[in-house]
């Protein structure tokens, strides 16, 4: 039994401990799991240093349908933008199109954001709030829809 405890022991360096607590930073997790449909074909972009990455949006509906005067209305749609910097995943993202059902795991990072709108503020600086930044970690395809450019090629062959 003591051998198992020694194997499971994680050495904690003085750099991994926060000043306000005793938890180890390497054990902290901020992860989001999404199951939904792609709102558009993934888009290839480049960072300012020229590194390629993909962005894609996932639409999710959470909650029961809303009844209004005996009529059922679908729950509201939430849109999530995910950034994929992992070049090994890019080939699989290229094969997905709008409407594909996907399971996504992403790292959640809250970043400060200032909106460009200055309505409603006295100083004209806009609204300051945190914005969720979802960094792609894992993707499983539940139902694949071909991307628009792949559908065009298949129609040309017919």
TrEMBL record:
Residues covered by region (Disordered):
138-158
Q: Which CDD domains does this chain map to?
A: SSB_OBF (cd04496)
Query: What's a Gene Ontology MF term here?
Result: single-stranded DNA binding
Top-rank lineage group of the source organism: Eukaryota
Name the Gene Ontology biological process terms: mitochondrial DNA replication
Kindly indicate whether the keyword Lipid metabolism belongs to this entry.
Answer: no
Alphabetic keyword roster: DNA-binding
InterPro entries, per database record: NA-bd_OB-fold, Primosome_PriB/ssb, ssDNA-bd
Acetylation among keywords: no
Give me the Gene Ontology terms describing cellular component.
Answer: mitochondrial nucleoid
Q: Which NCBIfam families match?
A: ssb
Q: Could you identify this protein by its name?
A: Nucleic acid-binding protein
UniProt source species: Kwoniella pini CBS 10737
Q: What is the lineage of its organism?
A: Eukaryota, Fungi, Dikarya, Basidiomycota, Agaricomycotina
């Amino acid at each position: 039994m003591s051998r198992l405890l020694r194997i499971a022991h994680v050495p904690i360096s003085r750099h991994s401990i926060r000043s306000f607590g005793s938890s180890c930073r390497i054990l902290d997790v901020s992860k989001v799991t999404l199951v939904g449909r792609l709102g558009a074909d993934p888009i290839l972009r480049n960072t300012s240093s020229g590194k390629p990455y993909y962005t894609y949006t996932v639409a999710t509906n959470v909650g029961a349908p809303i009844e209004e005067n005996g009529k059922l209305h679908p729950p509201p749609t939430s849109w999530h933008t995910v950034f994929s910097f992992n070049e090994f995943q890019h080939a699989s993202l290229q094969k997905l199109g709008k409407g594909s059902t996907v399971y996504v795991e992403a790292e959640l990072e809250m970043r400060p954001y200032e909106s460009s709108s200055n309505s409603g503020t006295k100083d004209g600086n806009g609204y300051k709030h945190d914005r969720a930044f979802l960094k792609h970690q894992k993707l499983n395809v539940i139902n694949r829809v071909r991307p628009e450019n792949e559908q065009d090629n298949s129609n040309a062959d017919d």
